[in-house]
Amino acid sequence: MRKVYLDHNATTPTHPEVVKAMLPYYGKIYGNPSSIHQFGQEARKAIDEAREKVADFIGAIQEEIIFTSGGTEADNFAIKGIAYANEKKGKHIITSSIEHHAVLNPCKYLEKQGFQVTYLPVDKYGLVDPDEVEKAITKETILITIMHANNEIGTIEPIAEIGKIAKEKGICLHTDAVQTVGKIPVNVNKLNIDSLSLSAHKIYGPKGIGGLYVHKGIRIQPLIEGGHHEKNRRAGTENVPAIVGLGKAVEIAKTTLDKESIYLTNLRDGLCSGIGEKIDSVYLNGHPVKRLPNTLNMSFEFVEGESIILNLDMKGIAVSSGSACTSGSLEPSHVLKAMGVEPAIAQGSVRFSLGKDNTEEDIDYVLEVLPEIIVRLRAMSPLYRKQKG
Amino acid sequence: MKYSEKVMEHFRNPRNVGEIENPDGIGHVGNPVCGDIMELYIKVENNIIVDAKFKTFGCGAAIATSSMVTELVKGKSIDEALAISNKAVAEALGGLPPIKMHCSVLAEDALKSAIDDYLKKQG
Ligand code: FES
User: B105 in ligand 1 pocket by Cβ < 6 Å?
Assistant: First the structure.
């Protein structure tokens, strides 16, 4: 059976070149980068090179990159670290209602610790309005954290504009860029940001590694304490092979990003129009153009997302859904809810997130099997008949 | 989370999908937890459920439990059918992931509501 992986916003296959670059660091280069001897120094060199690649890729300088265990740690670190280091100035944080839980839950935690958090609404496309950000700012505001692009719907937020506002007011801006670094151009200076989270495994790098960019001079309190690693900001012996893998992944992304984003946009739009032609009562979730090149989120009315996923999986196609039934929490997607999508429509949402190895044939295959699945599930749905009268 | 082979089998080939014309009882219930919906139709002769069909808008577990409950009630008397619990449905499917147990409640509720409807019509 054909296998088609369309869940790249969840994770990507590790690039063979990345694996190749990592292997020596599981083998003969095993030194601890903190050691002064040659074994250690060889590993140190590898980390420095990777740091330089990551910094260069986002327009930062080496000292501004801190390696973490992934995007989630980077988000936790940025939010808790900046909040605690600046709490004397104020205890108010601004974020959006469609953030990843790696941002929302640290914010909720801080609320319990006496901070105030404003969760900004979004419009029907999932966009945050920079004016709303400005209006939400108070004398107490010390941090604004808004994601660069949303993982479920792909909508890209106006971070540069928000950054301008933050800069004028002298407030720290963090952005969760886990879905954008490596997919669309990201430059910390152009975006006017002070802090940014990134992750390797979303861009063909290994799992378990990510990074936090923190602009020079921004005060941040460590989350993990111990030795003097990462300039006293993140303790723990560095995960050398994974850091090398991250470095390689961004090095590759740097050369492929432009071409790939055009390729994926075309492929995705083909999938979108194909679905529109073959299936009625479908809706696009997310912004029509201000969107990640690889992401397509659609709702199939009268059917429920998990049933679609399971049926596609039986055909070898991997996708995901914002349906309550698949979320583990039994709450439908907080993102679609914030956009004002009706609950029954949110239940029928499916996210297709494409990657570099997907082909026209993959898309044709999806367009061949998906309509039958929807017809079959609709025939089973009590909502469909009602609609038909 | 992983479904049992039996759940997947019923999900792939659900039994008794559809509606019954002039049913003796209809159950229509919504799952307050996730918003999913199930409809169950029964045909009763001499106090025995001779046919049952369903329509479901819901997850894999909802469809599988709908399918299983229609299988379980066929040939049962009203009293026997009323004794079928959501646990029994889940067990007949080889178990459900804990987070999906509430889906089997939907099936039990739909059955009870269909029988209620039948009893009401009987007066
Ligand atoms: S019935 Fe909705 S999650 Fe199963």
Answer: no
